[in-house]
Amino acid sequence: MVKPLTQDEVDSGIDPSVSKQWDESTPKEEQFKDLYKIVDGLKGGLLTTIRPGVGPTSRAMAVAKRVGPDFLFLANKDSEKFSDLKNDKTAQVTFQNSSDMSWVSVSGEAVTTSNDDPRIKQVYSKGVNAWFGDLGDGVHTGMPEDPRMTLIEVKANYITYWKSTSTFPGFIKEVAHASMTGQIADTGINRRLTDEDIQNARDSGL
């Protein structure tokens, strides 16, 4: 439901589109469960690395597995993102659900592994080889044993997300109503999870 802009918000320099949807009261366990529901319903997102001389560089990546608040990706060790991560371990994973506009931003540090990581076989699925190809030499097969295949694990240290409380048509209606009446659209719930929250979730197996 739309909400009015107040003089106090203007005087305080507050962004009302954020403050009116901010949620600090919901228990952290429920916040993590809502987070997982959003990301688990999507096939992939954007993995962003920092490229020397360029800055943030993103590409679409399928999530091989989510482990609590952390994310595993199967990747070709010869791709440029590995050069990025050699220079700067900073990484970000973002998701958006186009059906209701919910989004997630996961900031953290990326850890890369070699092909002997046993998790590769655990998360590998048919179709991954389409991104690697088969050279026909019995080695570069696009299968889990292919020496090019390795893992990127993004260990989260800060997460923010917005959970929609309406359908996409409802979202459009709410925004239109706010625009016509001079009020603030209130279409969802904005939350953040700190490094402490995330570590507590890992420790508890959440």
What does this structure look like?
With 206 residues, the protein is an alpha+beta fold. Helix content is 29%, strand content 32%. It has helices at residues 7-11, 16-19, 28-40, 80-87, 119-123, 168-181, 195-204, and strands at residues 44-51, 55-62, 65-67, 70-76, 90-96, 103-112, 149-164, 188-193. Strands 1, 2, 3, 4, 5, 6, 7 and 8 form an eight-stranded antiparallel β-sheet that branches. A hairpin with a 2-residue loop joins strand 3 (65-67) and strand 4. The protein is elongated and about 70 Å long. The two termini are 32 Å apart. 24% of the residues are buried. The mean pLDDT is 90.
Give the tags.
32% strand; alpha+beta; 206 residues; 8 strands; 8-stranded antiparallel sheet; 7 helices
The arrangement of helices and strands along the chain is: HHHEEEEHEEHEHEH
Strand content: 25-35%
Total beta strands: 8
Low-confidence stretches: none
Q: How large is the count of helical segments?
A: 7
Gross morphology is elongated
Helicity level, as a percent range?
25-40%
The overall pLDDT, averaged over residues, is 90
What is the CA–CA distance across the termini? 32 Å
Largest sheet, in brief, is:
8 strands, antiparallel
- Structural class designation: alpha+beta
Alpha-carbon Rg, integer: 20 Å
Provide a brief overview of the structure.
It contains seven helices and eight strands.
Outline the fold blueprint.
Blueprint: H1 7-11, H2 16-19, H3 28-40, E1 44-51, E2 55-62, E3 65-67, E4 70-76, H4 80-87, E5 90-96, E6 103-112, H5 119-123, E7 149-164, H6 168-181, E8 188-193, H7 195-204
Antiparallel strand pairs: 1-2, 1-5, 3-4, 4-7, 5-6, 6-7, 7-8
